[in-house]
Design goal:
alpha+beta, Immunoglobulin-like, Jelly Rolls, five-stranded antiparallel β-sheet, four-stranded mixed β-sheet
Length: 446
């Protein structure tokens, strides 16, 4: 480890807080990358880099790859190592909704291949890393320029229901990845050296080892102009050269960094509590700019969430109330003591170009919760929904099974305990994006 410039404790504390929020998406992303592309003993392992692992079946509580999973569009996971050479992503022609978003190490999106952006025709797309800029994209349907040497893909493809799985599998089989040399039939370049991947542990996020992981990951992330000042201050602490060791720092500096982590946690917790939809939380680097806090909120709200023009998300963790006996604004949702209703008035269902759904997740893990009818989401594709007499639609979020047949048709089971509900609108119409359409209140109900 090089000799860091020892700056005053207040500056170190501020730098540590800023860097923790800036780097949190990188470490949360590495948590998934390590399990899927590095640790071949992990059940979530996809097979390493450069291969797809498809999930054609609807998610259940047994699936824990990512928080707030959805059953609207099963995932196709892949990771690319762009150090040695570019990669080629091929997609088949299909008339079903799909999107294959590619994200950098810090979860900023590199670009999107799919129904909304590139259409439903077959295509070949060249993925370039930061070491291969300027390479011609001639002969390809598109070129995606990554800022980091490691890139992830969390593809989504529409699933109509369990009976639709065979057709979905056929589409997913058409998603292919190949190194550029294999695509061109040329001699491959020498392989990049194998890194010594740090073993992921959950406690890393709240310890100084956070910065050791960051030090490792920055080796795959050339400095961007917008990050120059923060990268310089991190370098003064010895972070970024690939050999950072917290124990080598003076005790007072380590203490200041630990306090900075605590400051960042407090700031992020407050910001998450005040965030109610996905606007400005997910997107490309150009879209997100230097809003590091917003990106961190997005990671906690739903890692790998899509930008609002692709899918708009909003959620409830507390009652909008009053709406019924004992209703109270701001009281946490809890299926063990209350039932809830979500009513869309006549003409007020979510305006979606593709489709919409509401999904329930248990807290604090933000995963699907087991229920007796294996229904984890409800939406415009749910068969047998019962409209209200005036044409509106009332969804019933409760733990106990309703006795009334109409309420049963619209029942979304919730766990007997704390939970959150997420509304997803795929292909939101302009009225959603400009605020003319507003989500309905989630209130205590029968």
């Amino acid at each position: 480890m090089g000799n860091p410039v020892l700056v005053d404790e207040a500056t170190v504390r501020g730098t540590a807080a800023e860097a923790w929020i800036w780097a949190l998406p990188m470490l949360e992303n590495y948590r998934t990358l390590y399990a899927q592309a590095v640790d071949d003993a992990d059940p979530r392992y996809v097979g390493g880099f450069g291969v797809f692992r498809h999930y054609p079946h609807p998610f259940t509580p047994a699936n824990t790859d990512v928080v707030t999973p959805n059953n609207d569009t099963p995932y196709s996971w892949a990771w690319l190592d762009l150090r040695a050479e570019p990669w080629v992503l091929e997609v088949p022609a299909t008339d079903r909704y799909h999107v294959l978003p590619l994200h950098d190490l810090d979860t900023c999106y590199v670009g999107f291949v799919g129904s909304r952006t590139t259409g439903n025709g077959a295509g070949r797309h060249l993925v370039l890393g930061p070491d291969h800029r300027g390479m011609s994209g001639e002969g390809f349907d598109g070129v995606l320029h990554a800022d980091t040497r490691l890139v992830g893909i969390v593809g989504r493809t529409y699933l109509a229901g369990p009976e639709d799985v065979p057709a979905l599998e056929q589409v997913q089989a058409g998603y292919r990845l190949r190194p550029l040399s294999a695509h061109l039939g040329t001699e491959p370049p020498p392989p990049a050296p194998d890194p010594v991947w740090p073993v992921w542990r959950e406690e890393v996020l709240d310890s100084l080892e956070f910065f050791s992981f960051l030090d490792f990951l920055l080796g795959f992330f050339p400095a961007l102009p917008a990050d120059t000042d923060l990268r310089r201050r991190l370098a003064e602490l010895g972070i970024g050269a690939g050999d950072f060791e917290p124990a080598a720092l003076p005790l007072e500096i380590r203490g200041a960094m630990a306090r900075g982590i605590a400051d960042a946690r407090t700031r992020l917790s407050g910001a998450v509590a005040g965030s109610h939809d996905s606007t400005a939380l997910f997107g490309t680097r150009v879209q997100l700019g230097t809003d590091h806090l917003g990106r961190a909120i997005g990671v906690l709200r739903g890692l790998y969430g899509l930008p609002v023009e692709e899918a708009w998300y909003t959620g409830w963790t507390t009652e909008d109330g009053p709406g019924g006996p004992g209703g109270a604004v701001g009281r946490p949702l809890d299926g063990s003591v209350r039932s809830y209703t979500l009513r869309f008035p006549p003409g007020g269902r979510p305006p979606a170009r593709y489709f919409w759904s509401v999904t329930v997740y248990g807290l604090p893990d933000q995963l699907l919760a087991a229920n007796p009818i294996d229904r984890y989401a409800i939406g415009d594709r749910t068969p047998g929904l019962a409209a209200d007499e005036d044409g509106g639609l009332t969804l019933r979020l409760r733990h106990e099974r309703p006795e009334d047949p109409r309420e049963l048709a619209n029942w979304l089971p919730v766990p007997a305990g704390p939970f959150m509900a997420v509304l997803r609108v795929y292909g939101p119409e302009p009225t959603v994006l400009d605020g003319r359409w507003q989500r309905p209140p989630l209130i205590v109900g029968p």
